[in-house]
Predict the structure.
Amino acid sequence: MLEHKQNQYPFPLLDSMPIISGGRLWGLVFGVALAEWLSVILGDMHAGSEGLAIVISVVQLVLPLSLFIGLFTVVGQQRFRHLFAPISFRDIGFTLVMFVLGTIYSAVMTNILTTTANTNVMSGSSLNHMQRLLLFAINEGSNIILLFNEELLAIISFLALAALARHYGHMTRNTSIIIGWVGSILLFGLLHYQAYDWNLVQMFLLIGMSRVFDTAIYIRTKNIMLSFLVHFIYDTIIFAVAMFG
């Protein structure tokens, strides 16, 4: 199985003792989904002034982040630092392999579906060079929090679903990890409905299945920072091509 047997660092929720109650685990799944949905709703709000628009943008980033951390620590009864296992050189090598495979998959699927990998990416063709640089810097700054929020959504839901399958569905450890993996992929794709205008093929085959590689990194390394960095670098490349390509 993908989990490295020599990595004895425990998974939060799945390996927690005492076992987390089923109600708390389901609360985490629905809670992180609601937090991400609020982010989507805030992103759709139209402000009447520039000042209000800035406030909404900040709330869109900070509120979900606070909810994710609060749910994980209070409802899940976990320490946030437990999402960050020590990193080995082998972990870095595996991360690089997943990044390459994920990039190839996304490029192939994008070509097949004849769409862009991110429908919200703005073209820079109508902007001058300084405007492009400014927009790129603003986008990258906000993406640090935005994409980390998405990682928390994917990883917390994966851990909670895996724990439910293991402790309450009485599945084997490997089967529980697969169930959590697949369930979190479906949830991640579903919550991108706004970006893909309910195009189910794009929601699940393009954005949802990209989580196969990112979540695999977390399963192998047990460190959310590595999966986040791959997610962030990939989105940065996509936006840079749109702005300067």
About this structure: The chain has one domain: 22-244. DSSP finds eight helices and no strands in the chain. The CA atoms of residues 43 and 176 lie 34 Å apart. Confidence is low (pLDDT under 50) at residues 115-121.
